[in-house]
From TrEMBL:
<keyword id="KW-1133">Transmembrane helix</keyword>
<feature type="transmembrane region" description="Helical">
    <location>
        <begin position="50"/>
        <end position="69"/>
    </location>
</feature>
<feature type="transmembrane region" description="Helical">
    <location>
        <begin position="16"/>
        <end position="38"/>
    </location>
</feature>
<keyword id="KW-0812">Transmembrane</keyword>
<feature type="transmembrane region" description="Helical">
    <location>
        <begin position="161"/>
        <end position="183"/>
    </location>
</feature>
<keyword id="KW-0472">Membrane</keyword>
<feature type="transmembrane region" description="Helical">
    <location>
        <begin position="296"/>
        <end position="312"/>
    </location>
</feature>
<keyword id="KW-1003">Cell membrane</keyword>
<feature type="transmembrane region" description="Helical">
    <location>
        <begin position="75"/>
        <end position="93"/>
    </location>
</feature>
<dbReference type="InterPro" id="IPR001851">
    <property type="entry name" value="ABC_transp_permease"/>
</dbReference>
<feature type="transmembrane region" description="Helical">
    <location>
        <begin position="100"/>
        <end position="122"/>
    </location>
</feature>
<feature type="transmembrane region" description="Helical">
    <location>
        <begin position="212"/>
        <end position="230"/>
    </location>
</feature>
<feature type="transmembrane region" description="Helical">
    <location>
        <begin position="268"/>
        <end position="290"/>
    </location>
</feature>
<feature type="transmembrane region" description="Helical">
    <location>
        <begin position="242"/>
        <end position="261"/>
    </location>
</feature>
<protein>
    <submittedName>
        <fullName>Ribose transport system permease protein</fullName>
    </submittedName>
</protein>
<dbReference type="Pfam" id="PF02653">
    <property type="entry name" value="BPD_transp_2"/>
</dbReference>
């Protein structure tokens, strides 16, 4: 079974150090290219930008480890936020029940994606692609294709807490810790890695992978719903276009963090580094004046390079065995 379920090995420590070196190198590079980058304001802004991305990346790490993929998380973010906004604005619910509704919507979307993929034995790529469109359409219907302004009803998540950094950031970091502990210290985490490594061996061992797979997708949907709350709190609004394309950033962050697209290997802590690398890259490119299309080209190239590195790592590991 993968070493990701054991105590950190020298290889894992090497990965941590490698990702840290890349992150520090990027900070130094952009600090030299822009006189405004290396400042407290920049780092606070990055910290306040990443909570939604980080929360979804935690769930996506588990999805990729079971050799699946979920392209619908951005749409689920938007629909969950829309459900919460409707509950507050139209039905006059208080904040906690409205937020719970948004989380339940995310959970349901993830459970539906996982159930269809598992029961019908369909590629999760295709199922989640269909859900991406269907759920996005639901967000437009729920909001009448207009941004719903909820004001400061749920702005507490985005309120400055320590040094101008929002509570959402600290909650997201706490979820990273919880996710890593679940992955490395629980039976569920071992089953997740085992399914991604060799699903047939898990079946022969008497373990049914189906409910575990569905649970992983459901949890990812729940986290996407929570990301929707974070996004709404920061914008004080529910935008039906929110999260468009963010699924690519989420997958990029997880892959950059070293989680294998082939399944069986991953780390939530490494995903955190991947999110930071993506965030610093985008902030740095913006400060040095790179256009949005050029930023997308560079980000796409980073994803391709990360996938190539992962493929080479897999081949090297296969030859070693």
């Amino acid at each position: 079974m993968s070493t990701s379920t054991k105590s950190p090995t020298s290889s894992q420590l090497g990965t941590y150090l490698g990702l840290s070196a890349v992150l520090i190198g990027m900070v130094v590079l952009f600090g030299n290219l822009s006189e405004y980058f290396f400042s407290a304001d920049t780092f606070v802004a990055i910290a306040n930008e990443i909570p939604a991305l980080l929360v979804m990346a935690v769930g996506m790490t588990f999805v990729l480890i079971i050799a699946g993929i979920d392209l619908s998380v951005g749409s689920v973010l938007a629909l969950s936020a829309a459900a919460t906004a409707n509950a507050i604005l139209l039905w006059h619910w208080s904040v906690l029940p409205a937020a719970a509704l948004g989380l339940l919507v995310g959970l349901a979307c993830g459970a539906i994606t996982g159930s269809i993929a598992v029961v019908w034995r369909l590629p999760s790529f295709i199922v989640s692609l269909g859900m991406l469109e269907a759920v996005r359409g639901g967000a437009y219907v729920a909001t009448d294709s207009r941004t719903q302004y909820v004001g400061d009803a749920i702005s507490g998540l985005a309120a400055p807490w320590v040094g101008g950094v929002s509570s959402a950031f600290f909650i997201a970091v706490a979820l990273v810790v919880v996710g890593q502990l679940v992955l490395t210290k629980t039976v569920f985490g071992r089953y997740v890695v085992g399914i991604g490594t060799n699903e047939e061996a898990m079946r022969l061992a008497g373990i049914n992978p189906s409910p575990i797979r569905i649970a992983v997708f459901a949890a990812t949907g729940l986290l996407a719903g929570f990301a929707g709350l974070m996004q709404s709190a920061r914008l004080e609004a529910a935008d039906p276009n929110a999260g468009t394309g963010i699924e690519l950033q989420v997958i990029a962050a997880v892959v950059i963090g070293g989680t294998s697209l082939m399944g069986g290997r991953g780390s939530v802590v490494n995903t955190f580094f991947g999110v930071l690398i993506i965030a610093v890259l985008e902030a740095g490119l913006a400060q040095v004046g790179v256009s949005d299309p050029s930023k997308r080209i560079i980000t796409g190239c980073v994803i391709v390079v990360a996938v190539i590195i992962d493929t080479l790592r897999q081949r090297r590991a296969a030859r070693a065995h």
